[in-house]
Amino acid sequence: MMDKNEGVVARRGDWKTEPMPEKHETFVINRHFSEKEMEALRRGNVPRAMEDKWFWFMEGETLWAHRSWTGNCIYRLDFEADGRIVVTVNRDPEQYRCTEVEEDVEILNNLLDWWSRESYDHYNEWLSETGDMLERNNRRNKGGRRNKA
């Protein structure tokens, strides 16, 4: 799918954004991005369709990721000089349901795989994210089911 925002760099004022809530958690991911992948992340994304669930942009060495419908800030990624990525994740249960760092690492790495592509395909990312969510819910439910006799 061709990216209609090609050549346009997303800025904070391009979309509704809410601040990261006081209730949040921080963790570190170690991941390398090529210069081309960093260029894609720096371009950001201004949503163009209902299925385009993310608005993200960079300010300096910080990537801000907001849900497109609500403007809620879900992730803040600080790219450190030593190569680490310090992630701050929203933990307000009214804004974001995930509560486990391991799950956030999985979700965020999947998102970064999509976002760091030269041309961001929001529709297939949405399909992939929806499938991943259903799979996680299914795994969670299998662990908590009881046999009814």
List the helices and strands and how they pair.
Elements: E1 24-30, H1 35-43, E2 54-59, E3 62-67, E4 73-79, E5 84-90, H2 101-115, H3 122-144
Helix pairs in contact: 2-3
Brief summary:
This protein is an alpha+beta fold and about 150 residues long. It has three helices and five strands.
What does this structure look like?
This protein has 149 residues and is α+β, with helices and mostly antiparallel strands. It has one domain. It is built from three helices and five strands, in the order E-H-E-E-E-E-H-H. It has a five-stranded antiparallel sheet. Strand 4 and strand 5 form a beta hairpin. The radius of gyration is 16 Å and the shape is globular.
Shape: globular
- Largest sheet entry: 5 strands, antiparallel
SS field, number of helical segments: 3
**Count of distinct structural domains:** 1
Q: Segments where pLDDT lies below 50 for 5+ residues?
A: 145-149
Q: In order across it, which strands form the biggest sheet? A: 1-5-4-3-2
Whole-number average pLDDT?
Answer: 85
Share in β-strands: 15-25%
Order of helices and strands: EHEEEEHH
What is the straight-line distance between the termini?
Answer: 50 Å
Class based on secondary structure composition and strand pairing:
alpha+beta
Query: So what's the oligomer here?
Result: single chain
Kindly provide the radius of gyration, computed on alpha-carbon positions and rounded to a whole number of angstroms.
Answer: 16 Å
